[in-house]
Write a structure and sequence with these properties.
Blueprint: H1 3-19, E1 26-31, E2 34-40, H2 43-46, H3 53-65, E3 74-79, H4 83-92, E4 96-101, H5 108-112, E5 123-126, H6 130-144
Parallel strand pairs: 3-4, 4-5
Antiparallel strand pairs: 1-2, 1-3
Helix pairs in contact: 1-6
């Protein structure tokens, strides 16, 4: 399977969030070619500002594996992680992080000024299905106005 395939799966999670009037961000965690966890934004539903798609997917993966580290796993997320989610990825020691569209307003780069708040062993890939991921966000906020 390709990064594009797994990002398409993360986009499905983002569309679920969109349909539930949540900011449309989705994430999946992949281990050995298999999706082991999924997440979509649930901040409104749970009244919890930490209920980001990445946090939900990571927590689900930790619980499934009984481990707080994911060095062999890959996280796919539709939008650049915020600083909180980047921190969770750092502490998880996740092997690879792939995101779609950049988030100039709330992404980690806006705050850190760098492209690297992640664990030094984590591989970073970005821009996968960038247009599709970004368009879903644009459509959501256009609907809100």
């Amino acid at each position: 399977m390709t990064d594009e395939y797994y990002m398409t799966q993360a986009l499905k999670e983002a569309k679920k969030a969109f349909d539930e009037d949540e900011v449309p961000i989705g994430a999946v965690v992949v281990l050995n070619g298999k999706i082991i966890a999924r997440g979509s934004n649930m901040t409104e539903k749970l009244s919890d500002p930490t209920a980001h798609a990445e946090m939900i997917a990571l927590t689900s993966a930790f619980n499934l594996l009984g481990s707080k580290y994911l060095p062999e796993a890959i996280l796919y997320v539709t939008i650049e992680p915020c600083l909180m989610c980047a921190g969770a990825m750092y502490w998880s020691k996740i092997g690879k992080i792939v995101w779609g569209a950049d988030d100039e307003k709330n992404g980690h780069k806006r705050i850190t000024g760098t492209n690297w708040p992640f664990h030094q062993k984590s591989e970073i890939v970005y821009g996968v299905l960038k247009e599709e991921c970004g368009q879903l966000m644009k459509d959501f906020f256009k609907k809100k106005r």
